[in-house]
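#onboarding

Welcome to the new folks! Below is a worked example of what a typical request in this channel looks like: someone posts a single protein sequence, and someone else replies with the predicted structure as tokens. Don't worry about understanding the tokens yet, we'll cover that in week two.

Example request:
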Amino acid sequence: MPRVPRPLLAGLVCLTAIRLGIAATLPIGDDEAFYWEWSRHLAAGYVDHPPAIAYVVWAAVHVLGRTPLAVHAVAILLSFGTSLGLYALARAITGREDAAFLSVVLLNLIPVFDAAALVTAPDAPLFFFWVLTLLVAWRAAHGGTVWTWVAAGAWLGLALLSKYMAATLPVSIGLWLALSPERRRWLVRPEPYAACAVALALFAPVVWWNAMHRWISFVFTALGTAGWRNSGDVRYFLSTQFIYLGPVLFPALVAALVIAWRRGLARATGAPSAEAAREGWRFLAVTGWPVVLGTAAASLLVQAKPHWSAPGYIAAAIALAAIVTERPRHAWSRIGAWGAGFAAALTAALVIVFHALPWLASWLLPPQLDPAMNYYGWAEAGPAIAAVAERDARGPFFVTSDWYQVMAPFDFSTGGRVPSTTITGDDQYRFWTRLETLRGQDGLFIRDNRQTYDIDLTQVCESLDVGPSVPLMRRGVVIRTLDLIWCRRFSGSPAPRLAPYRWHPGVGGPARRPSPA
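Example response:
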């Protein structure tokens, strides 16, 4: 790995320290709490994703303890490693230190990568292993040994263990080899196929887990949940790219990929240096466009999430940095220089606001308007709910909800000491607690008014008792209230879902409302 310039390393260390400071004051998010739940039930696969995030969270919690900082630290430290790997990758492709330096700066200016550096999710290990796969594959194709190819396969396997999106990597690398005259020979050699075999060997436990669970994770990824069956919304997807990638950087990154494609396929001039440059542009184009175009195409069919395209913009960041630094500053026109300066200043300001938002929102906004308000209040509410369950149960009991975003924060706040599960039997909790084993017990149901769909408790409970309400507090202000309902003598069957939610206190159970036509 090339030596990282001291100014860049110092900047990354300072940025990491700032992020750790933010993480120390930010409670855990509901999805992060869910991944902590995964770390308590280590397995070779899960309904939503492959298992890498569970194992890195498990390691962090065992080192730093069960704290929000420990969970947040996973994303922060992996982002630091991603930046270092990106510097090495950009330096290898462009051959220029300034382009590599700017690549790292750009990556840390893009909102979706900033968010992935603060909120722990499968994207954090994916980005890290994605960059390392590209770096080692590039080196392997440029005179590497069989062991270099094996290392590339190992990083690819770890990327596949992070998120299924990594399946596009071997396609992109294979396409690059096919399009590069100097590298095409690798397609008839065994080394790249040995790398794929290593990756598949690492990924094999995920395949085995899916085979033992009716291929549930693969089906979930391919077909999606019920909400995915709605028609796509490409306008939503494209508009949110300006938010997730930045209003200035998004069009610039797309333009950089267009330029990379044109230059990579330009007619050969015979000069070795020119061919080497074209090879680098081809590599950036084919490792960026498949993800970007693939997610855009998916948005025509399903409700594609805005961050799905993010891995493709890693190559775009390198391409943009290479374009910006390829000629001296004095060659820029006055208008171009002012425009670039304005774009850089605006982007930097947005990044500063993004990192300061958890603190600014806490002091400048009412608690109800805090964008992170859903993170707060569980540290007090969770133990209070557990106390109600222990006090008012008529025998063996469990705490339940119909939403993992409720159960996971509750379990994290209580350390998992109270028996708990979701009651619908249609998410990851079904593999941790068999509902039939809870037959005859009392279930304390937590109703979060953020949930838009109701369930019919009357079908699975002998009787219902309205329990107390527990507030979620932020700086002494009630953010929202959790309604508690006792499900007496649970039947052991999943509760059916109903129409959109409307709660009438004192009626004795949730009310039904017909779905709109």
